[in-house]
């Protein structure tokens, strides 16, 4: 997970070094999504939402349990002693990313987890500020998404259900 | 909850028709941020976290649009900006999962700041 890896390694890095790190992080993000990019292009929104629905259900189940769950014990769905199967499934990049993503909250327990979360927040804030500047510098007709109908549909989603 | 309903009604079809692409994106980003702020303001009342879930899912929907569009090779945005926003989308995804599983109002602050910041950038023209 690019942001977290950087947050863990970043520590008290100088701003310039962090900016350079941002570029590396961003490149990693694109590379990490590239393998599923072909399947996400076109109908990508629907596929993303379906995956998020699954993750939302899992998150809500964890919340209902009322206790911190070590998610690496919940997921992936195979016994840890089956090393061959684990290695095979880990090769599937999409699943591996899901596993890493699901381990993120569990990794934040305790004082070191708080520090890690703060670093991740700081890094995200830096990237957000840089993105804000780049957006401001764009041609006035350029937006993030070229898919206005989809954006309008999302905009009208009723948040009160 | 009246606050949520008011925010939900802000972006009706008539208003959206009048907005340029950047303005529309800024409006949706701000709406998503406002929903999260409303959740923080009503945290104690939202015992079952229904408002939280709805606000998070609204944000997910918006960021999924961005993510899907930016993953498309034909997206015309500069590579650096595209990569930065994709990085943010990855962070947003994980933060939403985390706060949905382990709800704490403070965890929403960064999501609000990201949305507001990008909206400001879009409206800078």
Model description:
The complex is a heterodimer of chains A (161) and B (125). Chain A is mostly helical. Chain A has eight helices and no strands. By secondary structure, chain B is mainly α. Chain B has one domain. Chain B is built from six helices and no strands. Chain B is globular, with a radius of gyration of 15 Å. Chain B starts with a helix and ends with a helix.
Ordered list of secondary-structure elements with their pairings:
The complex is a heterodimer of chains A (161) and B (125).
Chain A: H1 2-10, H2 15-40, H3 44-65, H4 71-74, H5 83-90, H6 93-106, H7 110-137, H8 148-155
Helix pairs in contact in A: 1-2, 1-7
Chain B: H1 2-10, H2 13-17, H3 21-41, H4 50-70, H5 79-101, H6 109-122
Global structural class of chain A: mainly alpha
| Percent in helix of chain B | over 70%
Distance between the termini of chain B: 35 Å
Strand content of chain A: under 5%
Order of H and E elements of chain A: HHHHHHHH
- Count of DSSP helices of chain A? 8
Question: What is the mean predicted local confidence, pLDDT of chain B?
Answer: 88
Protein traits:
heterodimer; A: 161 residues; mainly alpha; 8 helices; extended; disordered N terminus; B: 125 residues; 6 helices; globular
Task: Describe what is shown at a glance.
The complex is a heterodimer of chains A (161) and B (125). Chain A is mainly α and 161 residues long.
């Amino acid at each position: 997970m690019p942001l977290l890896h950087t947050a863990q390694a970043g520590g008290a890095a100088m701003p310039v070094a962090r900016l350079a790190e941002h570029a590396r992080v961003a490149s990693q993000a694109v590379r990490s999504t590239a393998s599923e990019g072909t399947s996400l292009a076109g109908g990508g929104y629907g596929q993303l939402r379906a995956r998020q629905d699954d993750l939302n259900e899992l998150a809500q189940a964890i919340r209902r349990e009322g206790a911190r769950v070590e998610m690496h014990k919940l997921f992936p769905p195979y016994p840890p002693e089956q090393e061959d199967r684990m290695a095979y499934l880990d090769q599937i990049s999409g699943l591996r990313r899901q596993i890493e993503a699901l381990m993120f909250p569990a990794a934040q327990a305790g004082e070191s987890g708080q520090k890690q979360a703060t670093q991740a927040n700081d890094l995200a804030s830096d990237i957000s500020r840089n993105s804000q500047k780049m957006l401001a510098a764009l041609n006035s007709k350029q937006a993030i998404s070229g898919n206005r109908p989809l954006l309008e549909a999302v905009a009208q989603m009723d948040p009160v259900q | 909850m009246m606050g949520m309903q008011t925010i939900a009604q802000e972006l009706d079809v008539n208003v959206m028709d009048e907005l340029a692409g950047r303005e529309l994106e800024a409006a949706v980003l701000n709406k998503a941020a406002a929903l999260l702020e409303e959740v923080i303001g009503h945290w104690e009342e939202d015992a079952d976290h229904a408002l939280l879930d709805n606000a998070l899912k609204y944000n997910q929907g918006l960021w999924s649009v961005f993510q899907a569009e930016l993953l498309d090779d034909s997206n015309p945005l500069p590579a650096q900006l595209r990569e930065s926003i994709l990085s943010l989308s990855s962070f947003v995804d994980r933060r939403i999962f985390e706060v949905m599983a382990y709800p704490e109002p403070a965890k929403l602050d960064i999501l609000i700041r990201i949305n507001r910041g990008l909206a400001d950038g879009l409206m800078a023209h």
